[in-house]
Amino acid sequence: MSRHEPVLLKESVELLVWNKDGAYFEGTAGYGGHAGEILNSLSDRGKLVATDKDFEAFNYCKNFFKNESRYIVYNTSFTNIDVIAKIEFIEMFDGIFLDLGVSSLQLDDPEKGFTFREDSPLDLRMNKSEGITAAELLNNASEEELADIIFKYGEEKKSRQIARKIAEYRKTNKFETSNQLKNIIAELTPPKFLNKSLARVFQALRIYVNNELEELEIFLDKSIDLLNKGGRIVIITFHSLEDRIVKEKFKYETLECVCPPQSPICVCGKEARLKLVNTKPIAPAEEEIAKNRRARSAKLRAAERI
Q1: Can you say whether the dihedral through the CA atoms of 61, 113, 127, 148 is positive or negative?
Q2: pTM of the model
Q3: Is there a contact between 173 and 165 (Cβ–Cβ < 8 Å)?
Q4: Residues in the chain with pLDDT < 50?
Q5: Residues whose CB falls within 8 Å of the CB of residue 276, separated by 6 or more in sequence, listed in order
Q6: How far is CA 181 from CA 83, 103, 177, in A?
Q7: Strand 299-305 relative to strand 274-276: parallel, antiparallel, unpaired?
Q8: Of all helices (H) and strands (E), which one includes residue 164?
Q9: CB 3.0-4.6 Å disulfide test: which of 8, 115, 116, 274 passes with 303?
């Protein structure tokens, strides 16, 4: 299996690792690209704990790093960071990292059901043992629900038309494969815009069936609680909805007061817990985008516990 090309590798690790003897958490192990570089930056006393819901990614990392005593990976959601910290007897982490991109290996493997480039099972789940498939969603959700999902999570302007076509199609057919959905979208979209529309719709369904935005919010709350003083939280996002959640959470945690402006004194009792490391998100350099087109939408934000 070829290794996945990690995005913003140098930038993310340089921002993350400040204590070479520290304990670090990676919420999306993937195929070990970032993990390898993080471990290279740690001393013999350092430790990296990782998670991944995808069993194949988990298994790959477990085998690839089998001789690495400083590394341990769990086949679970990153929302369980608090549980894992207790299992590993870690009170606080010195750095927490999340790369929210779906790896090239996942996107390109038809068996995983993420791609629309080849006909494959319409699944889209990271963990194949949890939740409903994208096909089940298309077969059972109401037309209105589908339109809302496609618009909210994919920001697709033709969401209503696509949902209507889906509802018509399933009266006589059952959704099972990606080509069935692809053909419906192709009927409504000019060829030059087709790939972008397909990407938006498949993204929307993937986000929904994996509860990605809800899990990100849960993770952010737990992570800041578990971050050591001086510790860094570094997150790479790939679309505006994720980036907005991270941006707003980081901003809220930098505020010392959230009382209404007209309030004469502060009564909220809030304290700032973070300071921004970079006020504007870091984007990949042109050279990196030229090597890996999927890096072009990446944004890196980092904050430090105070």
Answers
A1: positive
A2: 0.91
A3: no
A4: 1-2
A5: 250, 251, 254, 301, 302, 303, 304
A6: 39, 22, 7
A7: antiparallel
A8: helix 159-169
A9: 274
